[in-house]
Amino acid sequence: xxxxxxxxxxxxxxxxxxxxxxxxxxxxxxxxxxxxxxxxxxxxxxxxxxxxxxxxxxxxxxxxxxxxxxxxxxxxxxxxxxxxxxxxxxxxxxxxxxxxxxxxxxxxxxxxxxxxxxxxxxxxxxxxxxxxxxxxxxxxxxxxxxxxxxxxxxxxxxxxxxxxxxxxxxxxxxxxxxxxxxxxxxxxxxxxxxxxxxxxxxxxxxxxxxxxxxxxxxxxxxxxxxxxxxxxxxxxxxxxxxxxxxxxxxxxxxxxxxxxxxxxxxxxxxxxxxxxxxxxxxxxxxxxxxxxxxxxxxxxxxxxxxxxxxxxxxxxxxxxxxxxxxxxxxxxxxxxxxxxxxxxxxxxxxxxxxxxxxxxxxxxxxxxxxxxxxxxxxxxxxxxxxxxxxxxxxxxxxxxxxxxxxxxxxxxxxxxxxxxxxxxxxxxxxxxxxxxxxxxxxxxxxxxxxxxxxxxxxxxxxxxxxxxxxxxxxxxxxxxxxxxxxxxxxxxxxxxxxxxxxxxxxxxxxxxxxxxxxxxxxxxxxxxxxxxxxxxxxxxxxxxxxxxxxxxxxxxxxxxxxxxxxxxxxxxxxxxxxxxxxxxxxxxxxxxxxxxxxxxxxxxxxxxxxxxxxxxxxxxxxxxxxxxxxxxxxxxxxxxxxxxxxxxxxxxxxxxxxxxxxxxxxxxxxxxxxxxxxxxxxxxxxxxxxxxxxxxxxxxxxxxxxxxxxxxxxxxxxxxxxxxxxxxxxxxxxxxxxxxxxxxxxxxxxxxxxxx
Length: 756
Known about the structure:
Blueprint: H1 2-12, E1 26-28, E2 35-37, H2 50-56, E3 61-64, H3 73-78, E4 83-86, E5 95-98, E6 101-102, E7 107-111, E8 114-115, E9 119-122, H4 125-128, E10 133-136, E11 145-152, E12 166-172, H5 175-178, E13 185-194, E14 199-211, E15 218-228, E16 256-265, E17 270-283, E18 286-299, E19 308-321, E20 329-351, E21 354-375, H6 385-391, E22 399-414, E23 417-434, E24 449-466, E25 473-483, H7 487-490, E26 507-521, E27 529-542, E28 545-552, E29 558-560, H8 561-566, E30 580-585, E31 590-602, E32 606-617, H9 624-628, E33 639-649, E34 654-663, E35 667-669, E36 684-686, E37 693-703, E38 706-713, E39 747-755
Parallel strand pairs: 7-12
Antiparallel strand pairs: 1-2, 3-11, 4-5, 5-6, 7-8, 9-10, 11-12, 13-14, 13-39, 14-15, 15-16, 16-17, 17-18, 18-19, 19-20, 20-21, 21-22, 22-23, 23-24, 24-25, 25-26, 26-27, 27-31, 28-29, 28-30, 31-32, 32-33, 33-34, 34-37, 35-36, 37-38, 38-39
């Protein structure tokens, strides 16, 4: 039955790009009568939106433009097939999940092409009882976003470097997003307000642009500021306050951001873009700052052989903690830094009758993590208590990771056929300090030592596609990807040097995809359109990294808790007891597979958009999740989809629509810390069913200068908990007398944009 339904969905609608035209153009000169033949060109009457470009492109690509529905960034990402987010209310970051893979290196999360490496650690005492909650994520003000692009299951190009499952790029507004075409000056504002803890949010951007340098040159500058107020208190669908199910006053946020961009175009061949972005927030007992800077240079002369790009970037983040919030620590802060250079060129030519596009480049990146800890730990029986407190904790491991890569890609086209052949080579160098192990625990090296891990590998990928008909363009692809172990995994230190793993290997994945794109028009009505992308994928991940629990056995040997359970604790040491959480490689491969469908039908007056995902995985869960909140269950819901349906009125200036969000069966890590009695693994359990959530929205564009927005979220006032929310696994959530961490109940929002 399921097979028949799936077959019907795959063959029902047809969607893709507009009809294509191929033309051979021949020019004859009067002087020498020579014939010049130009290669076939794919042309389109209108410029496609980023959403339509992604759907027209063979492979697992999705995109979203500007958010006009007053949805959160998490919701926008979750509206794409195969894409989800990890939600940690104590972090305030965007943590992208692709096909069940989440975290630094598993998903290359970028802002304007700059890889983000922020690693947050929060200590909301009322939630974690003094423990830390840690996770990777990106700090971004949603008021600055103009689009999001997601690539799944590929390792091609710069975005595929150190990206196991795919990449996500969050695009921020620039000079041309503020100024209307042909104007020298522009102002753009965004504002919104809501009830039920949403608060107020506003952004103002000012930009100017003028001719400069040469007849074809220009100079443009934009500056923007933004601020929001997000209350920690709200009510769920049952009318219960958030303070009853996990939130506390330290969750209140007042993030503020600034963004500056400068566009310099000396002539028609050269262009520069400089950008600086600053973010500050006081949140969960820490002062958070984040800064991004980049320089982009583009050189494109009148030559098909040169299309040159250079990007220099640096990102810096800092977390300064209130005293008396981290164990016995005071005057404590943690910082992350990422520096990168990316250089590439693209050449286009005809070779052996094939339209050829050859790209090649290199990316070098350094990710560095530092911490500053002062401890007032004291024990009459232990004179080393202060130093041990500094070394033996789960707070912000330190070290650095260098990534060196070379990448190249070859695209060959002839008639309806197209082949993409990509290859990248990556070299990883991870280094840091491992303190000495307790003499009663056997380690290697036993003493304190600077350690270094190196690893490299070639990652090929290939995609073949054929535009057999405008309504049928099948594709098939294979991709190999890898990511090196990160600093947090190697230098995790709940037991100092004893819990660190200097032999950890990087993860490697092989992904196969098969699917098709389709496009058709004039189906039911004149000038209607249908677009569809459907695919099946399967991945095998070797050396999957997760944390396991180890004890001390006789003679100081480390032994897993599963081993002790199986031998009735016969070998457990009686002289020294310690529970070490060590990141290890899975001995068996992790396998994932699934179906992803994205479709859009538009008549002009009405539209419907569908995003559908059905996924399955067997990945293990990190035991450290339960005790220290490091990472969390990544496993996606069994099935989830979003349907966006709307109607346009008043010459399409007024849009009224609904968002229907369905989330199937999903799981969480056991809130009661239940472990498997045989293996000692932290168990996962089914979450209560998540009801179908319905949002209403409307937008009214008076003219190009004014747009108003309205939204009702969770219209039916359902009581539910979002999938992959870390608080779902908070201790005590299985208590019938305690409300399970739940999302906001019915919430009203109004907003708008003013441009001139």
